[in-house]
Backbone:
């Protein structure tokens, strides 16, 4: 049996796994970074977290053939270079160098949503489709584009920025500086903004005041679900509005690049997929030209927290991806 | 020397060429269909037009190895089936069958904008790019997507519908039935609509009343250019608005699929490319995430009227495309 390591570096936590050659997850380890951003400090925590996963797996470190890692940043995959991670305040960090020095194993670094999409794709029923797009809805909206089994990185390693598709000229300002990005309308950041506007300017009310009093600054997907299940009118409207916008952006994908399948994931979809997916499918069909969405699959993700780290570890295990690994 | 035929079927005219194996256009023939839509009648005109091109080329029909044809419709390329051409009122016509019966030569049928993009791509400086998008701006806006030299057709042969990317939620109604499509804002149809609104509702005036009195129903790209050159304020604003919208849609391409190059063509660009391209480049750069548009080429088309028929003929000449030809 062969073994592989996967690491998912987030803005506030590190998640590591060890898998076997069949993709079984043998162990998981999780460490909070407590918002620490000093690179060397966090790097040591990453090593600790990965070592903990190895220990838990009972696999000898020597038997782990390669390590894949995902970061919340555009990545120059040819150099294992994190380009710019606003959540961590890091810029141009050659992460691969440190890992190869420490573990002396082939290493691969990519963007977290790319790796999550790859993981979901590899262990999903849409693996035989030529062209698929992963869409992950949380506070923001991320994406990943896979063609013929290859992750499409784009000219400057920024492909997959699905959340920054502009769908409303002159619309709501987005954190990226542009206006009318999908994320600013349909991500949790957009949902919160819509709710605030309705409450503050139109005098509407919402159960969120009870369910999640801090909803104006941050809101859990489970709180949204709770309010939706209680038939909170405002939250229901906000959710439908968000799903509809994602459906329009999905139709844009169909019209412009003709994807065959989409994988929907992220916290919001995990909680509210039953609400989102039917709306997304319907809007996508309505807004696609010449019945272009007929037979286009929209499937929910199913790997949960493992997706990103599993995608990264699994990527390094595949024979056809060996040329991407850095040594 | 080997020879190939190419046919570009439009809504009102047929354009045929004969090329040699180097892509030189040896002859051209053009026949107006006079808006006739009866299939058999038009089919005979297509044969006439192609025969005329062959005659003019002085190449013996027997020496023409294959024929490529482009139509204003989604095409099932595996069957040579025109799916739905609103301009011609045709639906589900197996054009390949008639051509193969008539000429007994390998035949290929594809969408006109796909073939135009392919032609421009094959004879352009961006031929070595992995991922390119063709954008053609006329009355409407069409597109073509090429990855690794392959035309991307999408799940239902509708990929490339760039003009129907929705960029303005709840915006101007488009001929396709949706709202806020790029075409409805930035195509000539969108420009006319904008001008009418400004003149009728805001009392603005335009030189177009003199240059092109029919501008409310139809407008030539050259008339737009003339008004622009005369510094007509309203037309200038309409052109800049159109170019800006295309720039935003181009940024969406960069963000979502990371294209490396775009080829801009069509009547509007042929006349006003010097105005459009700088605005498109600037807006695309501003609205792309993490400097994603850096180094992304935006080049003008240069094959003019030949592009579509040349793309179709050239496609059939390539060794790596022989498996697509129908016999």
Residues:
């Amino acid at each position: 049996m062969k073994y592989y390591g996967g690491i998912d570096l987030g803005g506030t936590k590190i998640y590591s796994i060890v898998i076997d050659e069949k993709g079984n997850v043998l162990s998981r380890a999780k460490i909070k970074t407590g918002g620490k951003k000093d690179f060397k400090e966090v790097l040591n925590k990453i090593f600790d977290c990965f070592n903990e996963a190895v220990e838990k797996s009972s696999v000898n470190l020597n038997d782990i053939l390669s390590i894949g890692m995902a970061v919340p940043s555009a990545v120059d995959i040819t150099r294992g270079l994190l380009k710019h991670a606003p959540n961590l305040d890091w810029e141009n960090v050659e992460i691969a160098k440190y890992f190869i020095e420490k573990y002396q194993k082939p290493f691969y670094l990519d963007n977290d949503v790319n790796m999550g999409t790859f993981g979901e794709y590899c262990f999903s029923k849409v693996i035989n489709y030529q062209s698929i797009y992963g869409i992950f809805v949380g506070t923001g909206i991320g994406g990943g584009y896979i063609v013929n089994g290859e992750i499409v990185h784009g000219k400057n390693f920024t492909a997959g920025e699905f959340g920054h598709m502009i769908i409303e000229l002159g619309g709501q300002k987005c954190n990226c500086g542009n206006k009318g990005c999908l994320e600013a309308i349909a991500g949790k950041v957009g949902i919160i903004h819509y709710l605030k506007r309705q409450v503050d300017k139109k005098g509407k009310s919402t159960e969120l005041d009870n369910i999640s009093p801090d909803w104006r600054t941050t809101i859990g997907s489970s709180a949204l679900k709770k309010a939706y299940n209680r038939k909170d009118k405002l939250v229901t409207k906000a959710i439908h509005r968000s799903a509809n916008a994602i459906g329009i952006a999905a139709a844009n994908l169909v019209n412009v690049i003709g994807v065959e399948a989409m994988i929907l994931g992220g916290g919001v979809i995990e909680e509210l997929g039953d609400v989102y997916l039917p709306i997304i499918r319907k809007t996508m069909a309505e807004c696609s030209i010449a019945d272009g969405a007929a037979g286009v699959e929209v499937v929910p993700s199913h790997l949960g927290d493992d997706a990103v780290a599993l995608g990264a570890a699994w990527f390094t295990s595949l024979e056809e991806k060996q040329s991407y690994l850095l040594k």
